[in-house]
């Protein structure tokens, strides 16, 4: 199935072992509309380690979902992947440069569902209303795993049981509208995991659910991730969910990654001004009651316009005129595990900023944490 | 180092949404902009406006009186316009009976061609129904033939044109036979028949123009009637809900359970036949509306139901607005655009309905003229085979109906760009 | 505005001085049932018991949070209290500043219109709550015009004043809603509610349709307005963190009725009803080091058209006894100011958020300690 | 499902009762009773009836009965299939209508199958190849198809058929098969003639249905479950035909509610133009001659045909969409 031309130049780590399940390099997804070009994904470079959960955080319209769709080559029209590289390293088999394949090719379809699968935000609309749940799961199994209908049915029953749905045998013949939202999302997870993929793309899978149902779904996902050993790209805007699910976190703003860090480091010390602002603007249980929340001033710029320099600089409390509004910072390591794209941490030439000084607060007030309670 | 500013000036400027002209304008203006971008629909609107203008001044544009009988030109084919001295002119026709096929054949005598003139005097009419006049935009006035206009070259050309004219009539080459009697009825004034003439020699073009007054307005008047019944009952049904709603909805379903045309036909047949043209016109619009209101009522009810659930209606109630105010200042302005679209898309069905009924002899009746009445003459298929121009009244029907559909489509896209 | 409040050690503000002792609103046994019609003739087939016994009161100047999962009837309760819906059963007593004590459940149209001058609502959806054909000025002015409160330049001044209060510019009056973002639209909706200077505002999920960063802006605005105009809020939401942040007291709803009411701190630390415990336990803490799941709530919320017998929560309750299956416990006072609808409220020892300090997520501590970012700003090239 | 059927059928019965009342009003509406019309005709031909005979007829049609009794007499006979007498043709109505109704049903069904068979692939093609030349062509044809009055299309095809194919028109059979019993040659002959009315009937319907199909498929293609199917690795043509088209059929079947009345209306009018031995011409003659018992029998039967068509559409809908089944 993998042609030699599509065998990618694998990014090999120092000990000669490929340990990522997928690597995205400088990915660009553009939507050409009548009113202009929307740069939904604007140069994303990201690796997902095998067996790990990478959370992608950001507000609506930041391109996190389109990144997931791009991996499947399922960006909806008029969106197009205009540049970049996506290299997939299947469990068994040589690495594959996904974008070399046509989006409707047999090879691409073998990847979809076989190696990479996806679950969506809206469980109510993600399953086809006119076919029983079982048929929809078996369709995937019959495409990728076996041609035997009986075996496919047995596997479907098995996976439906694993996601915690009661009476999986009867569920095979049940239609989606007979299930509640939580049960549909379980069925959707069963569908996505039915062919034991290397990578699961989870696009806000719990956003539309109630908290108690969300807790159940997160439990199921965690258990099955451990059992199957797959990687997950977990897209969400809920920091609580990220804290619970992710091993690593990537923060996106306007189609670009602004920060990447292991989850604990990110929550211990968010570095990018956007990450900080985002984390402090969300109330949590137990945060000081009635105190003013920190807000990110202003709103997102017009989606067709391109912000010069750092995309966040118009809203950034510590933006440096002449620098941030002119030059675009690259994502660079700050510690061995953390990467940030901000001129607070590295100079224009890429060298780390020398020593901590008090300059950051030399303006009219402390740039960060200005409204924090003492 | 004062390298880091507070970020405030920067943030203050760039954060604002880009101000565009679109921010200041109302929904109506936005819709107009969106509609104007749809060139096909704008074109359809222009065509329709022209058609209605034409209908308004039909007698002025008609070269002939639409009811003028002229047995000498029964089933005359569309007149060929010849350029004589660079001026479009009409040749007088002579009528002869083709004894082999038992039908009228005509020969043009282009030596006596008469020019088409602008602003000629003819039949009396009232411009826009108000100003009495006998001026027509164009027409032919019989003038003595210029003596010198008979070179032999033009004669052969005339022969050719006669031959092809006759070929159009029935395909038989009767030119030779006809030419023998060419001089018999030479005194006849030439007539201008763009679309040919009917059995009684009436000018089809003038009749189509006259017919457009009935056919184009009956569609709109019918829809206005439907709209009045439909919007009242539909809005009432949606706003009241409960038993009223149920009763109205069941009535609509039952009316829609009867096939439309047979029902129209049955109602139309039940109408008294001894009415004036105006009475008949009103009765036919009522018959069309009896069925037509159901669709409008149903769509409007759906809209009202959808609006009723919206929070801005709840907010208006909390502002203390009365039901009347809510309906008038919130629901109606929002539903207006939909009503316009629904009505626009209903007009062509009304036009088709009148045309079909009149075609069957159940709608408008002679002496009234409508496109359907004109097309009734095509029921004799043998006659159509010989006189295909009898089908010409169908062209404006198709044009008007297609333009209304295009217009409605464009309007719908303009008010609802996302559906 | 904030400086009028005393700030306590934990960063919360003490609001005891602004909350009056008087009740502004008292709701007793409120029920709202929607008939289900079916069949050819629209026969009555049953009822959806959307609201099935809500008891609560709101003190002057406070914010009462009303939380629950989707379909629990919290929005219907809010809309019934303000009488957008007719009342099936129960009492709603509103102490109107001008009209005095009013029984809303039997108020007529004219009376309601007067009550609505001091009782307003903010809606969830910033799109469907603004008439797209009206300019912002007309939207905000509508209550003033309809009630003949202001006209001419007085009206213009009032509209400009309210718009400024919600952070919009007075010159926005001539624009139409489509020209605004979601957060700005929500501000317009708030301005409309404020126009009549109401006493009580029912906030129906005012931030749940907004993006996280905009959500914070609107929450801050609501708090500012409350201080500035002495407002009382009934704050309906499904997000416990938001409710925790903004409420003085919280009422928890489950399948149409209130199962627990208590001051916010007390409710989250010391819940007395197993459902509240489950709800708190289900919130994923934004702390990657706290990955344990103390309470797992099995099953799903039952349908309000066909609720279970006895205590509606019993089929999912790990503490359920036989009595729970037959007898629905009333909402009763368990300790001063703490009400719960559970047969065993006194005996159960339930878990809330462990303690305040350990539950403060790492985020806040981290940000608090990093006023200065580790690496400093570089020199401008 | 059973519940659903019972509900639909009982609605049908109620509708038929309502339509019968409407029809009865139509019988009574024209000034002068049917008997007077008949008498007038007889007198014109020089004949007459005795007072005795007139009274007998009046008795039979209950001229002097109150209206509800008249209705009751008429409807109770109609239910048994006795629709009264055609005054014009002097034969019982029931002996006239059945054969013609049969051809009407046959023609309409052919046309329906034809237009569905054409509009689904056209709509799918148009939706999946948006903004291409063929899509524009299909869309333009749709407008033309909807805008041409059906009788006109019939006329044009008639002209075309007799000119280009030299085919006799205005009948469903050649002369030698007109009254022959059914046989294979007769069937072939029938098919050779039936295409004109079927094509004419189908054109308008096809245009409308293609539009609906295109719009709905575009709608469905934007749905999440289509993306789900693609994310499973299902091939694009299967995604479209199995996952999308099946869901887009729902509104198409719903559209039968408006397609069927148009179809039956169209059948009536083109049969008149083509002078086919179906309901149309005889219905028109009956209306023009105020032969109301005959006309109303046709109207009732056409309505029944439509109601049955709608019932079948409902059943089809329930079969295609499980959500309807369990409603």
- Overall shape of chain C: it is globular
Assembly level: heterotetramer
Give the low-pLDDT segments of chain D: none
Share of residues in helices of chain D? over 70%
The best one-word shape of chain D is: globular
Q: Strand pairing plus helix content of chain D: what structural class?
A: mainly alpha
SSE-based structural type of chain C: alpha/beta
**CATH superfamily caption of the largest domain in chain C:** P-loop containing nucleotide triphosphate hydrolases
Separation, N- and C-terminal Cα atoms of chain D? 8 Å
Level-1 CATH class name of the largest domain in chain C: Alpha Beta
Written as H for each helix and E for each strand, in order along the chain, the element string of chain D is: HHHHEEHHHHHHHHHH
**Sheet with the most strands: spatial strand order of chain C:** 8-9-10-5-11-12-14-13
- CATH class membership of the largest domain in chain D: Mainly Alpha
Characterization of this structure:
- The complex is a heterotetramer of chains A (374), B (419), C (381) and D (327).
- By secondary structure, chain A is of the alpha/beta class.
- Chain A contains eleven helices and twelve strands.
- In chain A, a hairpin with a 7-residue loop joins strand 4 (79-88) and strand 5.
- In chain A, helix 5 crosses helix 7 (181-193).
- Chain A is globular.
- Residues 1-19 and 145-186 of chain B have low confidence and may be disordered.
- Chain B has two domains: 44-55 and 208-415, MetI-like (MetI-like fold); 69-202, no CATH class.
- Chain B has 419 residues and is an alpha+beta fold.
- Chain B contains 15 helices and six strands.
- With 381 residues, chain C is α/β, with parallel strands linked by helices.
- In chain C, the strands form three sheets. Chain C has an eight-stranded mixed β-sheet with strand order 8-9-10-5-11-12-14-13, with helices on both faces. In chain C, strands 4-3-6-7 form a four-stranded antiparallel β-sheet. A two-stranded antiparallel sheet of chain C has the order 1-2.
- Mean pLDDT of chain C is 85; it is low at 1-5 and 356-381.
- With 327 residues, chain D is mainly α.
- Chain D is built from 14 helices and two strands, in the order H-H-H-H-E-E-H-H-H-H-H-H-H-H-H-H.
- In chain D, a hairpin with a 4-residue loop joins strand 1 (85-86) and strand 2 (91-92).
- In chain D, helix 5 packs antiparallel against helix 6 (133-147), helix 9 (224-231) runs antiparallel to helix 10 (236-254) and helix 11 (256-274) runs antiparallel to helix 13.
- The longest helix of chain D has 38 residues, at 184-221.
- The model of chain D has no long low-confidence stretch (mean pLDDT 80).
């Amino acid at each position: 199935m993998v042609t030699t031309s599509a065998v990618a130049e694998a990014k090999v780590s120092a000990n000669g072992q490929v340990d990522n399940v997928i690597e995205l390099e400088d990915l660009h997804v553009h939507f050409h509309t009548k009113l202009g070009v929307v740069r939904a994904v604007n140069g994303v470079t990201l690796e997902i380690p095998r067996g790990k959960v990478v959370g992608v955080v950001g507000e609506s319209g930041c391109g996190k979902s389109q990144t997931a769709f791009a991996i499947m080559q399922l960006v909806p029209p008029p969106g197009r992947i205009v540049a970049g590289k996506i290299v997939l390293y299947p469990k068994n088999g040589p690495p594959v440069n996904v974008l070399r394949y046509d989006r409707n090719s047999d090879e691409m379809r073998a990847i979809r569902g076989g190696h990479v699968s996806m679950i969506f935000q809206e469980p109510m609309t993600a399953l086809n209303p006119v076919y029983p749940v079982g048929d929809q799961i078996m369709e995937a199994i019959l495409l990728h795993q076996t041609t035997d209908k009986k075996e496919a049915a047995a596997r479907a029953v098995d996976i439906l049981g694993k996601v915690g749905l009661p009476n999986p045998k009867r569920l095979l013949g049940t239609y989606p509208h007979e299930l509640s939202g939580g049960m549909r999302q379980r069925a959707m997870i069963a569908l996505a995991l039915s062919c034991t993929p290397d990578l699961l793309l989870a696009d806000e899978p719990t956003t539309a659910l109630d908290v108690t149902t969300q807790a159940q779904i997160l439990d199921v996902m965690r258990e099955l991730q451990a059992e199957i050993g797959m990687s997950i790209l977990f897209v969400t805007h809920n920091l609580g969910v990220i804290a619970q699910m992710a091993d690593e976190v990537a923060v996106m703003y306007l189609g670009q990654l602004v920060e990447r860090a292991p989850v604990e480091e990110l929550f211990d010390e968010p570095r990018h001004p956007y990450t900080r602002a985002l984390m402090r603007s969300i109330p949590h249980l137990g945060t000081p009651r009635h105190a003013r929340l920190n807000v990110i001033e202003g709103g997102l710029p017009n989606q067709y316009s391109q912000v010069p320099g750092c995309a966040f600089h118009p809203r950034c409390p510590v933006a440096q005129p002449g620098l941030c509004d002119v030059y675009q910072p690259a994502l660079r390591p700050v510690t061995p595990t953390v990467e940030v794209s901000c001129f607070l941490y590295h100079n224009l030439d890429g060298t780390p900023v020398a020593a901590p000084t008090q300059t950051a607060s030399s303006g009219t007030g402390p740039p960060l944490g200005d409204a924090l309670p003492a | 180092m004062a390298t880091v500013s507070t970020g405030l000036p920067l943030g203050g400027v760039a954060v604002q949404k880009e101000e565009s002209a679109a921010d200041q304008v109302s929904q109506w203006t936005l819709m107009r902009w969106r509609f104007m971008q749809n060139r096909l629909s704008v074109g359809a609107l222009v065509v329709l406006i022209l058609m209605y203008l034409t209908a308004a001044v039909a007698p002025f544009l008609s070269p002939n009186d639409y009811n003028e009988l002229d047995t000498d030109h029964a089933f005359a084919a569309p007149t060929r316009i010849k350029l004589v001295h660079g001026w479009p002119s009409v040749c007088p026709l002579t009528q002869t009976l083709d004894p082999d096929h038992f039908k009228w054949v005509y020969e043009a005598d282009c030596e006596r061609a008469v020019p088409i003139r602008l602003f000629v005097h003819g039949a009396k009419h009232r411009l826009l129904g108000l100003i009495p006049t006998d001026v027509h935009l164009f027409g032919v006035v019989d003038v003595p033939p210029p003596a010198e206009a008979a070179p032999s070259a033009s004669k052969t050309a005339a022969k050719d044109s006669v031959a092809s004219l006759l070929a159009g009539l029935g395909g038989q080459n009767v030119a030779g036979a006809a030419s023998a009697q060419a001089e018999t009825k030479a005194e006849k004034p030439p007539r201008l028949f763009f679309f040919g003439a009917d059995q009684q020699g009436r000018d089809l073009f003038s009749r189509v123009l006259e017919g457009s007054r009935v056919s184009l307005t009956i569609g709109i008047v019918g829809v206005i009637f439907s709209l009045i019944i439909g919007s009242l009952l539909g809005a009432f049904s949606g706003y009241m809900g409960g038993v009223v709603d149920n009763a109205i909805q069941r009535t609509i379903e039952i009316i829609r359970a009867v096939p439309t045309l047979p029902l129209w036909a049955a109602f139309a047949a039940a109408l008294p036949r001894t009415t004036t043209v105006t009475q008949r016109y009103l009765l036919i619009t009522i018959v069309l509306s009896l069925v037509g209101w159901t669709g409008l009522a149903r769509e409007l009810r759906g809209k009202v139901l959808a609006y009723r659930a919206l929070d801005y209606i709840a907010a208006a109630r909390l502002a203390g607005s009365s039901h009347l105010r809510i309906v008038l200042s919130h629901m109606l302005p929002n539903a207006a655009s939909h009503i316009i679209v629904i009505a626009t898309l209903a007009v062509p069905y009304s036009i088709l309905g009148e045309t079909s009924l009149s075609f069957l002899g159940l709608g408008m009746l002679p002496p009234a003229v409508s496109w359907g009445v004109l097309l009734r003459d095509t029921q004799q298929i043998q006659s159509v085979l010989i006189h295909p121009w009898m089908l010409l009244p169908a062209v404006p029907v198709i044009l008007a109906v297609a333009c209304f559909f295009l217009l409605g489509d464009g309007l719908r896209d303009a008010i609802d760009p996302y559906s | 505005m904030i400086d009028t409040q005393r700030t306590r050690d934990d960063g919360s503000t003490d609001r005891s001085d602004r909350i009056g002792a008087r009740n502004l609103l008292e709701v007793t046994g409120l029920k709202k049932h929607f008939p289900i019609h079916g069949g050819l003739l629209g026969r009555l087939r049953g009822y959806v018991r959307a609201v099935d016994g809500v008891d609560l009161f709101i003190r002057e100047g406070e914010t009462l949070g009303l939380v629950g999962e989707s379909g629990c009837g919290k929005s219907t309760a809010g809309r019934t209290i303000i009488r957008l819906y007719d009342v099936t059963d129960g009492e709603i007593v509103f102490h109107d500043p001008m009209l005095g004590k009013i029984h809303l459940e039997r108020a007529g149209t004219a009376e309601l219109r007067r009550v609505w001058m001091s009782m307003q609502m903010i809606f969830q959806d910033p799109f469907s709550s603004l008439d797209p054909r009206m300019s912002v000025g007309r939207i905000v002015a509508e209550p003033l015009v309809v009630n003949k409160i202001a006209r001419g330049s007085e009206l213009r001044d009032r509209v400009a004043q309210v718009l400024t209060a919600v952070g919009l510019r007075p010159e926005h009056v001539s624009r139409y809603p489509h020209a605004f973002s979601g957060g700005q639209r929500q501000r317009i909706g708030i301005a409309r509610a404020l126009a009549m200077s109401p006493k009580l505002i029912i906030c129906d999920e005012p931030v749940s349709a907004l993006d996280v960063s905009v959500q914070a802006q609107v929450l801050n605005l609501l708090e500012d307005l409350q201080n500035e105009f002495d407002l009382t809020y009934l704050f309906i939401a499904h997000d416990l963190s938001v409710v925790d942040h903004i409420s003085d007291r919280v009422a928890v709803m489950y399948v149409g009725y209130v199962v627990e009411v208590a001051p916010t701190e007390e409710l989250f630390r010391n819940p007395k009803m197993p459902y509240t415990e489950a709800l708190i336990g289900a919130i994923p803490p934004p702390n990657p080091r706290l990955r344990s799941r103390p309470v797992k709530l099995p099953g799903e919320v039952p349908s309000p058209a066909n609720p279970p017998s006895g205590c509606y929560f019993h089929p999912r309750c790990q503490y359920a006894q036989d009595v729970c299956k037959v007898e629905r416990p009333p909402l009763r006072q368990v300790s001063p100011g703490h009400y719960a609808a559970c047969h065993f409220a006194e005996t159960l020892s339930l878990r809330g958020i462990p303690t305040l300090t350990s539950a403060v997520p790492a985020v806040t501590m981290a940000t608090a300690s990093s006023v200065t970012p580790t690496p400093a700003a570089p020199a401008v090239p | 499902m059973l519940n659903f059927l019972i509900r639909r059928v009982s609605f049908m019965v109620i509708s038929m009762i309502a339509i019968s009342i409407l029809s009865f009003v139509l019988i009574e509406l024209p000034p002068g009773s049917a008997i007077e019309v008949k008498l007038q005709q007889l007198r014109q031909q020089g004949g007459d009836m005795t007072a005795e005979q007139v009274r007998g007829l009046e008795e039979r049609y209950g001229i002097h009965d109150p209206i509800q009794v008249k209705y009751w007499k008429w409807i109770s006979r109609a239910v048994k299939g006795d629709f009264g007498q055609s005054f014009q043709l002097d034969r019982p109505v029931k002996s006239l209508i059945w054969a013609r109704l049969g051809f009407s049903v046959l023609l309409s069904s052919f046309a329906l199958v034809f237009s569905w068979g054409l509009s689904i692939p056209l709509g799918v093609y148009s939706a999946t190849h948006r903004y291409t030349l063929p899509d524009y062509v299909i869309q333009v044809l749709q407008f033309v198809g909807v805008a041409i009055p059906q009788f006109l299309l019939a006329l044009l095809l008639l002209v075309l058929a007799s000119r280009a194919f030299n085919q006799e028109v205005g009948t469903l059979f050649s002369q030698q098969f007109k009254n022959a019993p059914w046989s294979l040659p007769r069937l072939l002959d029938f098919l050779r003639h039936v295409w004109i009315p079927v094509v004419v009937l189908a054109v308008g319907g096809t245009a409308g249905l293609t539009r609906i199909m295109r719009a709905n498929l575009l709608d469905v293609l934007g749905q999440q479950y289509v993306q789900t199917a693609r994310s499973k690795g299902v091939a694009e043509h299967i995604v479209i035909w199995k996952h999308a088209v099946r869901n887009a059929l729902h509104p198409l079947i719903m559209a039968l509610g408006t397609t069927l009345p148009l179809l039956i209306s169209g059948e009536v009018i083109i049969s008149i133009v083509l002078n086919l031995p179906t309901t149309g011409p005889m219905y028109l003659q009956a209306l023009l001659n105020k032969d109301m018992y005959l006309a109303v029998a046709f109207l009732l039967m056409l309505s029944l045909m439509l109601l049955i068509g709608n019932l079948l559409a409902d059943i089809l809908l329930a079969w295609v969409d499980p959500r309807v089944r369990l409603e």
